Amino acid sequence: MAACTAARMFAYNATLCACEPGYYLNGSGGSCAAMPGGGWGDWQVGAVGAPRNQSLYFLEPVLSHYAVRRLTQSQAVLLEAALAALLAWLAFCAAARVAGRDPRGERRLFRARFWISRLDCIFDNSHWAEDQQVLKKRKTELGGTCSVASLILFIGLVTVLLYQAIKRRSIEVHRVKPANAPDLLSFVNDLEFHITTISGMSCAQAIAPSTIAMGTPGSMDFRVVPLPTLFTYNCTNTSQGPSISLKCNGCRVPPRDHFVSWQFVDLPGQLAAAVGFQFNLTAKQHGDSKHVSFVSGTTDSDGYADDGKLKTFRGRDSNVLKIQLFPQIYNNLGNLRLFQPLVQDFTQGSVFLDVGSLNASLQNPSDGVVNTTLYISYLSDYIVEISSETVLGPVSVLASIGGLYAFSVAICLCLMAQCEARIKKLHDEDTRMLKILSKRRARQNWDKVRKFVMYTWGPSHLDPTHRSGKQREGSVMDSLHRTFHKRREPIRQTTSNV
Q1: CA torsion, points 80, 81, 86, 88, in degrees to nearest 10?
Q2: How confident is the prediction along the chain (498 residues), in pLDDT tens digits per residue?
Q3: Parallel/antiparallel/unpaired status of strands 382-390 and 315-330
Q4: Contact 313, 373 (CB under 8 A)
Q5: Closest CA to 242 of 208, 281, 269
Q6: H/E/C letters for each residue in the chain?
Q7: Sign of the C-alpha dihedral, residues 163, 164, 170, 171?
Q8: Residue 375, phi then psi, degrees to nearest 5
Q9: Measured between alpha carbons, how far is 378 from 283 in angstroms, rounded to an integer?
Q10: Angstrom distance (rounded) from CA 366 to CA 297
Q11: Are 342 and 295 in contact (CB under 8 A)?
Q12: How many CA atoms lie within 13 A of 203 on its CB side?
């Protein structure tokens, strides 16, 4: 064999190479590789449907998936849009009031203020009035501002309410009930357990299990039966090590614990050593491939210890992976019955933390084994029933819309009342604005009359000291006067003496 010069590699028996604890020999490259992932951090658990792998999100190093999902939620976007529109309207009204002060009423912003007051359609009969005065409709600039602001707020809140009514009109309710034997026997599932031993080993080193133990060891219900009566065994070589598959198609699992054990042994030139385990457990109802419950991930000896030391599994003590199957009935999916697999615990077996102890174990034939036990436990005391219930009906939606309208109007009415009560200038702003506009209209009408008089009789008739009363020669009235008199001249007939 070649010299053991690669990183994390050492020689044993003077001719063979092995990897340091926490690393396994990569057969394709002839180097030592670390366990991918590791620990308990890369688990994926799904109840129904295909798993959603967030690792495919390409912006994850820059912007987290959770932040993007939180910022792009439709409900938050609708509220932000309504708030932006409300602030923009208030800013426009404030700018028009500050920059539109014009005693003559000729600026465009002053006319904008007038049209804002015409929008006072909600609070036109709720304005301030002195004592002992009859309330009457008044359209003010502040009332128009508050009316439109309340409508913007109301529309924004109603949009969010409709989004909730459409998107979240039902909730998922979980109910727990005691389980009977007939209830458990009605669960007919296709179970698949894939356990990959992360190492440089192969399926040639595996000793397949021949039996499966059921029940509690030492109790009266303990049984040992051949493995093919429940599961189909298979071993596949992968890039990360041998993968053991146990499948049960259309099986009615009895409510007792199951134990399945297998092991890997040393072969000439192939060590029995591992650095971790990768699991992928699925369950689906027999005959239904659409809905799947699953749990997948990786685990190593550092799952419950934070000492930071890398370890290698090798030795007689078995590594136990405890799995629990939880029965669930999905009433909202046509009475779908599924087992939800859960990985509850991992108990490590024999491990080595340093090169010296691992080297001594490699030279000891009795340590040349990796034992693995799959402990399947059934939480069969209770069954979870999952159903969908409607939380928003038409009556509740209408009641909520009425409440939102009252809320929007009450806030703006309170704001308007406080402003009119504290600022005396707002008591008669509608009257002052109408007076300015009426003066502007009178001035415009008077200008029209002046132009007519100047065009008709000339500018001299606009002078109060001019008393002649004669039209200016060449004016329109002078020409009309001459034409009129010419038409009324009598026709003189000439007589001839015949």
Answers
A1: 110
A2: 456 778 888 888 777 888 888 888 886 557 888 877 655 445 566 555 533 433 333 344 544 545 545 554 667 888 888 999 999 999 998 888 887 777 766 777 777 888 888 888 888 777 666 654 555 677 888 888 889 999 999 999 998 888 877 777 777 888 898 888 888 888 889 999 999 999 889 999 999 999 999 988 888 888 899 999 889 999 999 988 999 999 998 887 766 889 999 999 998 888 899 988 988 999 998 888 788 888 888 886 555 555 567 888 999 999 999 998 888 999 888 888 988 888 888 888 888 888 888 888 888 888 889 999 999 988 878 889 988 877 777 788 888 899 999 999 999 888 888 887 787 777 777 677 777 777 777 777 887 887 877 777 766 655 555 545 454 555 555 555 565 555 545 544 444 333
A3: parallel
A4: no
A5: 208
A6: CCCCCCCCEEEECCCEEEECCCEEEECCCCEEEECCCCCCCCCEEECCCCCCCHHHCCCCCCCCHHHHHHHCCHHHHHHHHHHHHHHHHHHHHHHHHHHCCCCCCCCHHHHHHHHHHHCCCCCCCCCCCCCCCCCCCCCCHHHHHHHHHHHHHHHHHHHHHHHHHHHCCEEEEEEEEECCHHHHHCCCEEEEEEEEEECCCCHHHEECCCEEEECCCCCCCCEEEEHHHCCEEEEEEECCEEEEEEEEEEECCCCCCEEEEEEEECECCECCCECEEEEEEEEEECCCCCCCEEEEEEECCCCCCCCCCCCEECEEEEEEEEEEEEEEEEHHHCCEEEEEEEEEEEECCCEECCHHHHHHHHCCHHHCEEEEEEEEEECCCEEEEEEEEECCCHHHHHHHHHHHHHHHHHHHHHHHHHHHHHCHHHCCHHHHHHHHHHHHHHHHHHHHHHHHHHHHCCHHHHCCCCCCCCCCCCCHHHHHHHHHHHHCCCCCCCCCCC
A7: positive
A8: -105, 110
A9: 13
A10: 31
A11: yes
A12: 15
The answer for residues whose C-beta is within 8 angstroms of residue 362's C-beta and 6 or more apart is 12, 13, 16, 18, 271, 273
Look up the pTM and report it.
0.61
Q: Are 23 and 4 in contact (CB under 8 A)?
A: no
Assigned token pair, 247: 């499948």
How far apart are the C-alpha atoms of 267 and 16, rounded to whole Å? 12
Single-letter amino acid, residue 221? D
β-sheet bridge partners, residue 351: 313
Q: Per the structure block, which two tokens stand in for 346?
A: 């991992």
- Total residue length of the chain: 498
d(CA 240, CA 279): 12
